[in-house]
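Contributing new complexes? Match this layout with copper (II) ion.
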Amino acid sequence: MRTVTRLAGFAVGLAAVFGTTYGIGRVVDRAPVVEGRHDGDGAHATGEHDETTDRLPGGLLVSDRGYTLEPVDAPADEFAFRIAGPDGQPVTRYDVAHDKQMHLIVARRDLSGFRHVHPELAADGTWRVDTPLAGPGLWRAFADFTPTGGEALTLGVDVTVPGELTERPLPAPSTSTTVDGYTVTLTGSPQPGRTSPLTLTVSRGGQPVTDLEPYLGAYGHLVALRRGDMAYLHVHPDGTPGDGRTRPGPAVTFLAEVPSAGSYRLYLDFRHGGAVHTAEFTVVAGTPAAGTPAADAPPTGGDPSGPAPTGGADHGTPGHGHN
Ligand SMILES: [Cu+2]
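Output block (do not edit by hand):
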């Protein structure tokens, strides 16, 4: 995997784990995927032993680089957590990245129920938000943040909401979806190990939407979750509002690099008409028909499960069957 320093907006999640940039909000967008090593960071003396975690996507670890995501008891209508720092104490100082100090993303383990919310920080280091966990299920909560003086991180933790469990099948791959009256189409196909442009185009009532509103400093935010382990990629657009070349729709282009072949669920947050909308897609990365533009091609059998044609990426999904 080569260094991708030119990615304007590559995964914060990856940058977080790999992060060779230290605590500089916007720079995180351009953080290179690490080929090198940490120098001189006391907490990671040589860096060599970090090779493994350097190459992990975000969100797979509940504790990394000395920081730990700790849910705390909260009323049923609230979700609360802390980030314990290297000294064991709750972290109370964070850098702003993409307009916020903390981005909390949740989704069920079947990749349904996605929400992206922004909790409030209390003086004691507790983050609270009206619960985004919409009903029973096995949820993953991702905290995407940069502790002041530290590296950007995405930590993940499982949360169970008791009740009757309904597993929702992963929707079949598609290149078009509708949400809140908008039609969003996807062109491009992610390829493992290299940067692929993904373009999402928004229309409403057959008309292209050309006045998307900036949301968190961009015309769109794209999160990808990998089926099977919920590896987390936060992908940002190629271009930002006001940079003189990026137009407010109808197309928003992202530069994405997925860590492996397999199925992913993409979640596009965009803002229009004063509200944030989330368009979702299933894509299959790294299908063998390399060179075929529409690798996220229609399923032939209806069940989109069969991921990882190359074998190495998906050693069996966790021990539960899909219908
Ligand atoms: Cu956010």
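Reviewers usually confirm one structural detail per submission. For this one: The first strand starts at residue 63 and ends at 64.
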